[in-house]
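Help needed: design a sequence for this.
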């Protein structure tokens, strides 16, 4: 079995439920609440036709899942990827519930996805797919109900199309139906960078806690899209040296350091980081095990598993991606003293600034980038400290600490609301 096949064989929904079970057990959660929180509230599967440029029609499959609505409307991104599955979307929606609770923003968890390789579609076909998918899931989404955002292979243009489609249906402009929009359509300053910025705030705190000097730290980043490329830029601004980066085509490595801005320009021109001059090529599995101090997984799920956790050299693993580490790998890393900043904390900057965007939209307001970033920093640093305190108090790893806080908050809200009818 290849590494890719072994990774694909791990079901993210089983991982998400296992993580929840571990926390529920430790919290001694009421059995009824445990049953409720262990499953998504709603799962919608849609099959919809799109007219392709050659005149033929192709039917695509998509999903929108709302895991929990106890603390507010559902919130979570939309992913376009050939490997999207209902179980993956369910896992991502559950992680969103815990993420919003960890950082204390008033949302439940949701997620969406379409099974498609968007690189194979023209811009017009992508627009058609997006508008029809938005129409199919419009029974669930809305500014008071469920607010999508970008995820893998979707961006501010995708959000603009969804906002327009929804607005056309209701007959007036509804900026608050999605976040991650272009600034000119009610997007927020700082949203594009927010996931990476939040992750770097966490890394700065972790380094301080561990007594690591970021100026001499070497960093490897897997995935070079929104989260990964901006995290690489921001960590380099902190004085760290980025020694390896990768995307779906492969990776590049230079022990002396990569010029991140030049790698971004190379990727913009060639569509991949591969081939960047002055660097050796490195595979994605090898990148995870490269000699470095900080590893930032910023691609897909299940990258760090029992197969490779013992070989990770980094002292800090900062999960910009959702679900990059399996529960077995968590144990191995913890035993080895690797400090892991879990996804539901580490990448929560994205949903936090999405929340700011939504608040601005509902109030027809526009905040400055400085204000957004300072409010983001306040929430990320406070949340990091709360999770760290829990981790030290309970002698558990950072993921378990974040889950203890999050599951308890969601369970309390659910219990207070009571059982309807
Ligand atoms: P993106 O589409 O902008 O970038 C994804 C990157 O990962 C691309 O460079 C792609 O080539 C690379 N990639 C894909 N498959 C890969 C593989 N098998 N090996 C190595 N690299 C691979 O997506 P993004 O928005 O940056 O999302 C990346 C991760 O961050 C996802 O797990 C996502 O859920 C998470 N995340 C994103 C946000 C956000 O605001 N965009 C917020 C929270 C979490």
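Sure. Designed sequence:
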């Amino acid at each position: 079995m290849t590494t890719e096949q072994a990774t694909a064989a791990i079901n993210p929904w089983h991982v998400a439920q296992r993580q929840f079970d571990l926390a529920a057990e430790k919290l001694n959660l009421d059995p009824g609440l445990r049953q409720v929180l262990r499953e998504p509230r709603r799962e919608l599967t849609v099959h919809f036709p799109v007219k392709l440029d050659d005149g033929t029609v192709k039917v695509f499959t998509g999903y929108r899942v709302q895991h929990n609505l106890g603390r507010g409307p559902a919130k979570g991104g939309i992913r376009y990827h050939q490997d999207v599955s209902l179980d993956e979307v369910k896992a991502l929606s559950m992680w969103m519930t815990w993420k919003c609770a960890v950082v204390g923003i008033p949302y439940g968890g949701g997620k969406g996805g379409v099974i498609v390789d968007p690189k194979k579609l023209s811009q017009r076909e992508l627009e058609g797919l997006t508008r029809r998918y938005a129409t199919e899931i419009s029974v669930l989404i809305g500014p008071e109900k469920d607010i999508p955002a970008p995820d893998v292979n979707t961006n501010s243009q995708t959000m603009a199309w969804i906002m327009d489609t929804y607005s056309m249906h209701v007959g007036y402009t509804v900026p608050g139906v999605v976040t991650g929009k272009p600034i000119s359509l009610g997007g927020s300053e700082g949203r594009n960078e927010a996931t990476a910025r939040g992750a770097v705030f966490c890394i700065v705190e972790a380094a301080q806690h561990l007594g690591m000097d970021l100026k001499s730290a070497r960093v490897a980043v897997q995935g070079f899209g929104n989260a990964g490329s901006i995290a690489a830029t921001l960590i380099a601004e902190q004085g760290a040296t980025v020694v390896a980066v990768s995307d779906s085509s492969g990776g590049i490595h230079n022990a002396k350091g990569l010029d991140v801005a030049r790698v971004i320009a190379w990727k913009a021109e060639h569509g991949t980081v591969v081939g960047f001059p002055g660097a050796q090529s490195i595979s994605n599995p090898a990148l995870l095990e490269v000699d470095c101090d900080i590893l930032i997984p910023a691609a897909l799920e299940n990258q760090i598993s029992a197969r490779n956790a013992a070989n990770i050299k980094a002292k800090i693993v900062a999960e910009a991606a959702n679900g990059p580490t399996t529960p077995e790998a968590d144990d191995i890393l913890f035993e080895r003293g690797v400090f892991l900043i879990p996804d539901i904390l580490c990448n929560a900057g994205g949903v936090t600034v999405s929340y700011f965007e939504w608040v601005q939209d509902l109030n027809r307001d526009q905040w400055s980038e400085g204000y957004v970033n300072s409010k983001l920093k306040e929430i990320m640093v406070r949340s990091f400290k709360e999770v760290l305190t829990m981790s030290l108090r309970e002698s558990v790893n950072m993921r378990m600490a974040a889950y203890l806080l999050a599951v308890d908050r969601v369970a309390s809200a659910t219990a207070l609301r009571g059982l309807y009818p």
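The chain is about 45% helix and 15% strand.
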